[in-house]
Every structure is written in structure tokens, then in C-alpha cells.
Predict the 3D structure of the following.
Amino acid sequence: MSQNITRFIETTVRERLSAMPAVVLLGPRQVGKTTLARKIAASWPGTALYLDMERPADRLRLDDADSYLRAQQGKLVVIDEIHRVPHLFEILRGIVDDWRAAGLRHGHFLLLGSASLDLMQQASETLAGRVAYIDIPPITAIDLRHSAIAALHHDTLWLRGGFPDSLLADSDATSLNWRRDFIRSYLERDVPMFAPRLPAVSIGRLWTMLAHSQGEMLAQSRLAQALGVSSPAVARYIDLLVQLQLVRLLPPWHSNAGKRLVKTPKTYVRDSGLVHALLELQDLDHVLGHPVAGHSYEGMVLETLIAAAGAPYSAHFYRTQDGAEIDLVLASGNRPEIAVEIKRSSTPSPQKGFSIACDDLAITRRFVVYPGTERFALRHGAQAIGLNDMVQELTEPMRRVLHEG
């Protein structure tokens, strides 16, 4: 069923391919990169070629990569699992430069990678100015709006998360088993592959601890003590999970010099379904009865809104030592423009600290996102708004700009 999902990011990938010689599409394993790439390739003007670097036959084709890839001139070449063949970047640079000189300036290579740990650095060093980078997150509420699964309830997305095989499973039990296997495979296969010197068992324990503290300030020394390792070791473990796009460190907004601000980032396991699997929460009733419920919902909404806001905005939270707080600040050009409080309540009401924080930052666009569908005014100049309408609030202005351009 995953092929019936229209991914919001698809338009961006097509636009970048029409402007750049190469595009690197980055995301966790099983997030839908291959499905999206095959869909784009199937409708690409001209011919497309798909190569999977986990298949020995495809790797054999690239024994003489320079000659083989040059022979594909005029095609869109999709190379999956590109991190397994990092030596290709140097070869691709020469090919791209030669084709550019011949007037062929865009749409040559779509490269798929499961981790940005070394891939971004390798690609940026060898393909500088020749490549665009795009992160593909798990399915969000944005993707549900215009897909064959539009009727899927947001609670199902929240419970199961956005990995297609988990979201579209026949039952909650099947979905949970898939997520358990996913977590195990990452710890047994991907961690040793991407960071062979880091202990997978400790990283697994840390991943679970981060799920327990979803949406809380990073307490690095406390985590280190619980794991029996040094604080720098915890920093390396977290960095790996961030680079694998499994964990988000949400930075604080701290450009307000007149306030005593919290400067420690918040941590989120990026997929709510993985939060619930790490905590062994089997169904929605178990989630709703667990202390993590509010922060888990917050994390799902936050990931959706960050994806919807896109490149024009940077994402932060804001908190003062006095308790004034904004769950999500979207800033553009180093200026905070949008403030979002997230409430899993049918009767949302902003905290006084939210109003104070918005006043601190001179933000007039104030929203409280909640599970309902009505949009109505609240005190302190805020509006209650459902997730779908908030997505539209963020995406429609950009669509108009692109259309007018």
C-alpha cells in the first residue's frame, strides 16, 4: 500500500533534480526513499536506471564505475545505499563536471542514503556546488492529506508512527512487531555498520531512556551516570542517533539577551511509533495511560510542522528561567515569526507563560495546535487550530510563492 502515498517531499525532490546535477535523499532505513525514488524514475522524462548497492549484481556493474556511468548519459541514475560505495563521489564529480561542460546541467543522479553520518561530509567535500541534500522523514499528517490513505485517523499515525510498513500494517499488533524488529535491526546491523566502535547495547539503552524523557531537556550527565559511561560518550551516542535521523535535538532560541534563558536543547525520538515501541506501549489505551502521552503527541506534531515549514524556517523552543515557554518557535532570517503551543486536549487553552514568551519575542502569529478541527480565537491573541489547518497555514504561502515564481 505504501506506493499509494503521495509524499509531500516529492515536489521538492523533483524541483531540485530539475535544477541540480545530483540530489542526495537522506532518511532512516525503511522510511520510503526507494519507493519515492522509483516513482520519480518511472515518470522521469526519458530513461531512468535504478542501482541498489546492497545487490552484488548492481555493485558488479560499477567495477568500472566511471565508464559505466558515463555510458548512462541522458538518463536519471538512481543509486540506492550510496553510503556503501563512498568512492563513487569522486567519480561522480568528474562525470558531472564533464557533462556540465557539454551543456548537460541537471537531473543526472539521485543518490539515496540511510545515514548522514559521513555521507554529508563526503558528498559536500567532493560534490560541492553540484549536489542538493534533502531529508525524507517518516510519513506525517502532511502526506495523509492528499494520499489514498487520507481517511487514516491521526491517532493511528500517532500510535504507529510514520514508517510505511508500520503505519499500514493490518493490525496494531503487527505494527508493533514491525517496529520492534526495526529497532533490533538498527542496533544489530546499522549501528555496527555506521559506528563500529560504539557499543550497540548501550546505544539501545540510551534510545529507550530518551523515549522515557521525550520532549524534556537533555540531561547528559544523568544519562551518563545511568549508563555507566562518560558524558562525552553519551554525546557521541546521541550524535549517532541524530545523524541516523532517529533523534532530534531541538535547540533553544537564545537571541534575547535581556532574559535569563534555558540554553539546553530538548530531545525527541523523532517517530512517535518508535517512542511507543521502545516503551512497549501496545495500543492507544496503553499510550493514553502512560506519562509520555502528552510529550509523544507533542513530538508527532512538532515533526509534522517542521516538515511543513521547510527551508524558510529554523525550528527552536523558547524557555526562560522564570517559566515563560513556547513549544515551537519558527524563525526566518534570525527573526522569530510563529509561536506554537501543542495541547492534546479538546479544550485547549494557552498558558500564561506562552503569552509572556510571545511578548518577549514580539511574535503576533500565535497558535495552539490541538486534536480538534475547529479554528477559534483564544486569549492572549492566540488561535486554537487543528493539525491539518496548521499545516495549511505553513504550506500555502510557500505554494503561492512557487506558483507566482
Observations:
- The mean pLDDT is 90.
- The chain has two domains: 2-135, 141-404.
- Residues 64 and 284 are 52 Å apart (CA to CA).
- The domain at 2-135 is CATH 3.40.50.300 (Rossmann fold).
